[in-house]
Inverse folding.
């Protein structure tokens, strides 16, 4: 079987949840004996047009108009459609195996629809709701043009979902978002949770929780893109209340984004310089180490959490993962312990939930002791890949 993934950038060209997910899924499918080609957007001029990566994935890259171009919004759709169409014809034309086209990003899919080829699609998030907030400062879009761009993306997403033979979502929350765009989705929907590398994301040899608890120094950690919807500012605002209960607590924030300056301002304004540290972008190996060091990993989402990859990764490292009751957050942890869900996504809700969790010593120990097995059973790639391959087989039988 040959699987052609059609997506936005691919990790490590860009390090985000979608980018890492497509890379890891593709690599895992290769280990299961499938041939995988990924059609992805170039993020740097030095990247090769075509390469066979060390993990066995064939990567074909297309170029997008520069975001600094005042006509970016007008040029984008046509340029992407033409280039993806050319690469798709190349990838499918060379294949002698049964081919499954698997889309992951709506902006790349019009070329697939125009080709009249059948495809399956993973709805990771409603991009039309994120197109402005996620890209603050990177698009030169006047307000009227921004509104047109959002409406255009919504129509594109609805069309992509309506025409897909199978629509995958990583959570029931995302399935409900998909149904608002494509009410006819019905039986074409398949729920497959996010997959994580449970070999890489695993507990360390040192029991740092026990050591820090003896010292009374709780360490909180969050890895988030610094945009408004991810809730990092609410977490920072919760720190004064947390410190009132645990004066030696320290919050480390990994990630970058357009809200970094605002978060830094809040950190200084609230007098948190000694208790909140912004790490910026970190490598995946460093990410694993921070999960292992943390007493609690926090996913403080304010809106639109399609799955919660960082939550699952923290659990796989044996670290309790505390979340806000937003989007799919509760779905990821609900089978482990209800104390891992904050009463609200506000600073007060985050603070009260974390304080209660931290003060219940025995409960926190039980969560830490069972988190690894919980994550491995639900989100390990072996079971996730098996579900995708079964769906691919079913898709091919209908063609």
């Amino acid at each position: 079987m040959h699987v052609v993934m059609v997506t936005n950038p691919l990790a490590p060209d860009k390090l985000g949840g979608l980018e890492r997910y497509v890379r890891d899924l593709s690599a895992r499918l290769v280990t299961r004996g499938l041939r995988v080609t990924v059609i992805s957007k170039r993020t740097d001029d030095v990247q090769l047009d075509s390469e066979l990566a060390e993990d066995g994935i064939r990567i074909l890259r297309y170029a997008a108009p520069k975001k600094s171009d005042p006509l970016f919004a007008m040029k984008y759709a046509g340029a992407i459609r033409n280039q993806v169409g050319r690469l798709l014809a190349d990838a499918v034309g060379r294949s002698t195996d049964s081919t499954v086209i698997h889309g992951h990003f709506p902006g790349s899919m019009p070329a697939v629809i125009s080709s009249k080829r059948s495809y399956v699609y993973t709805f990771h998030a409603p991009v039309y709701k994120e197109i402005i907030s996620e890209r603050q400062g990177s698009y030169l879009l006047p307000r009227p043009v921004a509104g047109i761009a959002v409406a255009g993306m919504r129509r594109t997403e609805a069309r992509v979902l309506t025409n897909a033979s199978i629509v995958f979502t990583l959570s029931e929350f995302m399935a409900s978002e998909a149904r608002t765009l494509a009410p006819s989705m019905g039986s074409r929907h398949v729920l497959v949770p996010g997959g994580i590398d449970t070999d890489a994301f695993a507990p360390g040899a040192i029991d740092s929780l026990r050591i820090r608890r003896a010292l009374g120094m709780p360490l909180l950690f969050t890895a988030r893109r610094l945009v408004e919807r991810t809730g990092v500012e609410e977490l920072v605002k919760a720190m004064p209340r947390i410190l009132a209960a645990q004066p030696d607590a320290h919050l480390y924030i990994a990630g970058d984004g357009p809200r970094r300056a605002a978060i830094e301002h809040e950190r200084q304004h609230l007098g948190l310089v000694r208790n909140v540290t912004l790490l910026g972008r970190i490598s995946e190996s460093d990410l694993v180490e921070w999960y292992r060091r943390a007493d609690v990993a926090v996913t403080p989402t304010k809106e639109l959490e399609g799955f919660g990859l960082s939550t699952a990764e923290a659990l796989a490292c044996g670290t309790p993962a505390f979340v806000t009751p937003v989007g799919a957050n509760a779905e990821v942890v609900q089978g482990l312990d209800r104390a891992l869900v904050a009463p609200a996504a506000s600073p007060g809700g985050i603070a009260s939930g974390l304080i209660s969790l931290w003060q219940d010593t025995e409960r926190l120990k039980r969560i830490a002791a069972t988190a690894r097995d919980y994550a491995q059973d639900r989100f390990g790639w072996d079971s996730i890949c098996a579900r995708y391959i079964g769906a691919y087989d079913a898709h091919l039988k209908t063609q």
Residues 72-93 form the longest helix (22 residues). The first strand starts at residue 2 and ends at 6.
